[in-house]
Amino acid sequence: MKKRLTALALALGLMLTTAAPGALALNIHGYQEGFAQAEEEGKWGFAGPDGSVVIPLQYDSVVSFSLGMAAVNLNGRLGVIRSDGKYLIQPKYDTLMPVGYGLYIAQEGDDWGVVSVLPYLDDTGRKTNEVYPLIYENVELGKSGGLDALTFTAKGGTRTIVPLFHIPGTLQRLGVGGSQFPLIRGRLPYFTDVGGRDWYSLWVDIAYNTGIISGTGNSTFAPGREVTVAEALQMAANMDSRYKGDTFHTTAHVSTPWYTEAVDYCLASGIIAPGQFDGYERQITRRELAQVFAATGLARSLPERNDIHRVTAAVGDVSEGEEGAQAIYGLYAKGILTGVDENLSFRPDDLVTRAEAAALAARLARPEQRVDLF
Fold first, then answer.
1. Residue 146 carries which DSSP code?
2. pLDDT in the model for residue 9
3. Which end of the chain offers a freer environment for a tag, N or C, measured as fewer CB atoms within 10 Å?
């Protein structure tokens, strides 16, 4: 089957432009989630908010970042990177078309299937990112019975239709990380106070897309507003509930005050202890937020990816014996916390903005966004 190297750009509804012959200046094409497509002499990468190149100009073409991922074309092969330039899908495919849920229709030669940005262990214990193996003659995204669906055409011509609403359950059965917090294709917010150059726009997009946090009304997010204890407990209860698969996050809550049921959930789940907070409407500190998030079932389930002993030595403004230290160290070790500067400083007694809370929640929900510190 003829290779379709341009299918990714068409699927995303974006045009990948080329530079004029002999162009020497860096050309920057619009910001999204803190990055802009950048091109010089026919090679593409990404620029940061200040206009400097942060992901090298090495690609034949690129697509803008969306939900922390961007498709790239390296020497005629398509892959997907995250915001630090690391590959989530290696550049080896002839076609990559986004499906949602962190999945892409993939073509390699004459073989088609569906691959994930997150690997998992198959029945033989082998790590793979093929959710549907590359054994088909074709895979297409379209409508079936009025529903969005994937149509798989086998080599012998047999067709199998999989509605997209089945995908999250499939990912959970396979053990793909983050499947309780699926990324919904096209579900991006529009907030008048969040711009494409802002460092937090990526985290706002992910936290909003996964349903962890919403706006403050009138198309605003209020990224600089400080988070209250009640708001932190609401986020923690929603994340914990979704991870465990119970009904709290799907139930309408009409209690007075509004946060009563979230507090009750967190108490019953052991996320907080009776009397832990002297009030729920006051602002929460970074130390307190770390303690709350670290106590969720989701956070407790995560493996360490950064050596805890190196973390303990590196985070200079938190001492081992102080309150909340183990929760803070644990979130660094699991790739959730990254610090506020190059020294990994935490500033435990500072207050927390909604933008910062969105970043923590997004990394908790989505494994592909967790950070290797060393």
1. T
2. 42
3. C
